[in-house]
Amino acid sequence: MKFKLPKLLGLFSLLSGFLLALTCKRAPLTSAEKEAIINKKVDSLLAKMTLDEKIGQMSQVRHFDSIGENGVAEKFIGSIIHTDGPIPGETALEWQEKFIKLQKQALSTRLGIPLLFAVDAVHGQNTFEGATIFPHNIGLGATGNPDLVKKAAEITAIESQATGFNWVFSPCIAIPYNEKWGRVYEAFSESTETTNELTKASVQGHQGNLSDKSTVMATAKHFVGDGSTDFGVEGGTTSLTMEKVREQLLPPYQAAIDAGVGSVMVGFNSFEGIPLHAHKKLVTDVLKNEMGFDGIVVSDWMGYSKYGRNKVVNAGVDMLMAVDGDLEKFQKGVKLGIKKDTVSMDRIDDAVRRILRQKFRLGLFKNPFPDSTLIAKIGSQSHRDVARQAVRESLVLLKNKNNILPIAKHKTIAVVGEHANSSGLQSGGWTISWQGSAKNYEGATTILEGIQKLSTGKVIYDEKGTDKKSKADVAIIVVGEQPYAEFFGDIGHSSNNLKLTLTKEHQQYIKNYTSQGIPTVVVLISGRPLVVTRQINQSDAFVAAWLPGSEGDGIAEVLFGEYDFTGKLPHSWPKFAKDYQTNKFGPNFWDDNLTPLFPLGFGLSYK
Ligand code: BGC
């Protein structure tokens, strides 16, 4: 066949164009180029926005707050939060569907800005029953293993995305100063260095490349000094010098910023007599300007009306957790502030710019919806295996007289105490519900189940520690704290009756077995070191197990010697309860003159 010349020429140019396109394939964009594109998009979007739309972007509400059927669109809401309270649905698919519906509403608005969906996933996606629940951060601090912390965060991100979220309010990077604080367990360690390292790992694990559909935006919280208040009071006064704050408390925030953390939550506490929510010097001058944080500063619960309204916005808070009826106060109040010139348009633009920038960085404009294929990964075996590894590595062996541990599998074992057979009790607060519970929950294994699984001898369960004629060769006695969260866990708070010591009943469990001459291994389930000096003396072996989460059976693997103990104390271990009553703000283990029972970093092993 003959080709006509023009046709041939056409074919030639097509071919050369194709070859050219192949050879001149553009190099991937550098991160600076990507950022420049994002900033351009943010500016052009911002230029189109009305004041109402801007204030809307700064608003976060609960998915069940009564803002009306079309409230998300009508009030231009920027973010939805899920924490305690009515769940979005029964199955993960229903959760996704609920959030897809809200997202579609946001996308139907004039500018189609997608919503951020935030969740308090602080040790796994702990608001969803059936998710993998990791040890609380204090246990991860004991592992001292940044790779493991990163993996745990990656899994939390996947399971959070699988239930419809693209933002988690984690990690808490407090440096707890006083074990009386009810949130000690939410933080990794009293050591700034350990916290720096694990913060970096956690942020990297959660965020990955950020725009992936299985990663989420992380939140470093609660800025700053939340764990270092006088008497360990949640939301109390942090009476440190600025020098100490810089030395001990700010470095983990710098580590988070360097790892690219997308948001920072301000604390309920005060510093220099000013609530952190209204502390412009710390929030704007230090965090944003000096430390270079360019993400979103989010308020804590109802932060707007609780801490001086527009003072909060002026201090540099960008998004308001305007829940439980706070939305109207915020939206009206800030509008009035603009009108009266007590809030500047520049401040509003800075806040909105930060929110939009994160939404672009997360790839939400392109991919606003969750991925239903992730649902199959919730609570999967491979996820649970990582959580079980975390449980094993978090265990700290404080005493092992005559090498009573590891226990031979053929022995007759008495397992004692209600904490031994309750996944709720072993998981602490922020598990399924805000305050946690004593109930078992789906997918979890208990400590007793783990012992039963591995034992080749007889296992006798004595729930209340009352067996006076035990036939056991050895007793594993599991004692500890009841679940609590936030100020409900403060020791000394008027609304609760908590102590830093074991209850009388739990002390009796131990006495009952030691008085029969039975060798005893005590496993302590607690969100903080407790004053258990006498019980450590009474028992033959003593293990600090913190709050291990859903994989309680991991504990048996170490008690039976399948794995060694590798955990090290993330806190100095106190000797006397009175140590916490004398000082102005409790002992400061960095420079105090009190001697702990065990120092930071202590932990025995089988070798
Ligand atoms: C807590 C935060 C939490 C927020 C949302 C507050 O009471 O202090 O840590 O992220 O509630 O549930």
Word description of this protein:
This protein has 2 domains: 120-376, Alpha-Beta Barrel (TIM Barrel), CATH 3.20.20; 395-582, Glycoside hydrolase family 3 C-terminal domain (Rossmann fold). It has a 6-stranded mixed β-sheet with strand order 12-17-16-15-13-14, with helices on both faces. A 5-stranded parallel β-sheet has the order 4-3-2-1-11. It is of the alpha/beta class and 607 residues long. Helix 8 (192-207) packs parallel to helix 9 (242-258). It has helices at 5-23, 31-48, 51-57, 71-74, 92-107, 137-143, 146-162, 192-207, 242-258, 280-290, 303-306, 310-315, 326-339, 345-361, 381-394, 423-427, 447-454, 504-514, 533-538, 554-559, 579-582, and strands at residues 59-62, 79-82, 116-119, 167-168, 219-223, 237-238, 263-266, 270-271, 274-275, 296-298, 320-321, 396-400, 413-416, 459-462, 474-480, 520-525, 541-546. It has 21 helices and 17 strands. The longest helix is centred in the N-terminal third of the chain and has 19 residues, at 5-23. Beta-D-glucopyranose (BGC) is lined by residues 83, 120, 169, 221, 300-301, 486.
